Every structure is written in structure tokens, then in C-alpha cells.
Amino acid sequence: MDNSFQHLSEMILNLTAIEGRMSSQENDVTMEIEKMSIETPIELWISTSANGKVEIGSIPPLYHVETSFQPSFHSITIHTEKTER
Predict the structure, then answer these.
(1) Other C-beta atoms lying within 10 Å of the C-beta of residue 1
(2) Domain range spanning residue 68?
(3) Secondary structure, 3-state, the chain
């Protein structure tokens, strides 16, 4: 996998690593995130290692160039919801 890409699982963890509760003591305000949806375009790098393991890398699109043959752009939508344990 190209070094500029990260594993798709890492990208998903990074996108969803948001503190569920935010507050401002100065303004006496508290906000709690219970649900979140993220939709973003991504470029994918799919490869198979020598032992047959499939690796999926991802990165935000690096550029958009108008050409007669357009590349395939992908998008991912992630829905998360807070649950009590």
C-alpha cells in the first residue's frame, strides 16, 4: 500500500473518535452528541499481500482533474449512535 494511504479501519476509527460531551464553563453550556453521520469522498487502495491477505487503504481525494476519462470516485457514509453499556 502506498505510504500516503492509511488502513480503512484506522480512517473509520479516526473519524469517529469524537468526545461525546462538550461543555463551556464560561458560557454555562453543555452539548452531548448522541448520533452522528459522516459522508466523505475517499480514494481506495486495494491490494493483496503475498499470503493472500486483502488490504484496503483510504485517503481523501488528492485532486480532481477534468479529463476525457474520469477515475472512479468512492464515498463512505458512517453512522454512529451512542449506546449505554
Answers:
(1) 14
(2) 6-81
(3) CCCCCEEHHHHHHHHCCCCCEEEECCCCEEEECCEEEEEEEEEEEEEECCCCCEEEEEECCCCCCCCCCCCCCEEEEEEEECCCC
Return the C-alpha cell found at 62.
488528492
Answer whether residue 21 is part of any domain.
Answer: yes
Residue 24 placed within a domain: yes
pTM above 0.90, yes or no: no
| pLDDT tens for the chain, residues 1 to 85 | 778 889 988 988 888 887 777 888 888 888 888 888 999 888 888 999 899 999 999 988 766 666 666 666 788 899 988 877 7
Q: How many domains does the chain have?
A: 1
Classify residue 1: in a domain, yes or no. Answer: no
Question: In Å, how far are 6, 13, 42 from 68, measured between CA atoms?
Answer: 29, 36, 21
